[in-house]
Amino acid sequence: xxxxxxxxxxxxxxxxxxxxxxxxxxxxxxxxxxxxxxxxxxxxxxxxxxxxxxxxxxxxxxxxxxxxxxxxxxxxxxxxxxxxxxxxxxxxxxxxxxxxxxxxxxxxx
Length: 109
Fold this sequence. Notes:
mainly alpha, two-stranded antiparallel sheet, 3 helices, elongated
């Protein structure tokens, strides 16, 4: 299991929450964030689908949940950049817990 996707997502979220740039610069940063999320999604999708868990591994990484959160973040940024009306807030929160119990883990399709 690689920690690269987690580090990449963390850096993307930090860049998103930075308030040190102007409005036009902020939009450029958000477009960059969407590209980074696309790259991260590609990396996650290219991970081995049927990774055999290690015999002593208690947990596995929950890639489907990470993919859902990436899509959720991407959609939120796109909605911000091109709002259809007043700025509604999505009440759904990111799960953030990507650790699966190996005994109850579903195979990644």
